[in-house]
Amino acid sequence: MARRDTREEMRRRAGGLESFLPYVLAVLLVPPALFWVAGWIVAKLSGRSYGAGPSELWQAIKAPGRAGEALGAGSTVGFWVVFVVLLAGVVFVVIAMGRTMRGQRERARLEIQKERGLPERRQVEAAYGASSVMRRRKEIRPDFVPEGRRPRVTDYAFWDGYCQGRKIYTTFETPTMLLAPSRVGKTQNVIAPRAIEAPGAMLSTSTKTEIVKLTWDHREKLGGPMLICDPEGVGAEAGLPGSARWSLWAGCEDVTEALSRAKVLAAGGSGGVQNADFWENVTKRVFTPLLHAAAVDPSVTMTDFQKWCFDPKFAEDALNILSDTSGAEDLAAMLESVVKMDDLETRANMWAPAANIGTALVDPRIRDTFGPDGEQMNIDDFLRRSGTIYIIAQENGNASGLVLTLVDAVWRRAVVLANSAPGGRIEPPLHLSLDEIGNIGTLPGLPRMMSEGGGLGVQTTAGFQSLAQAELRYGAAGSRALWEASTQRFVLGGVVDDSVLSALSRIAGTRTIVQESINSSRRGEGQGRSYSEREENVLEKSQIETMRRGLACVVEATKPLIVAELVPAFKRYAKEKRDSDRGRRDPGVPEPAVARVGDEALEGEK
Question: Which of 244, 276, 383, 531 is least crowded, fewest Cβ atoms below 10 Å from its Cβ?
Answer without folding.
Answer: 531
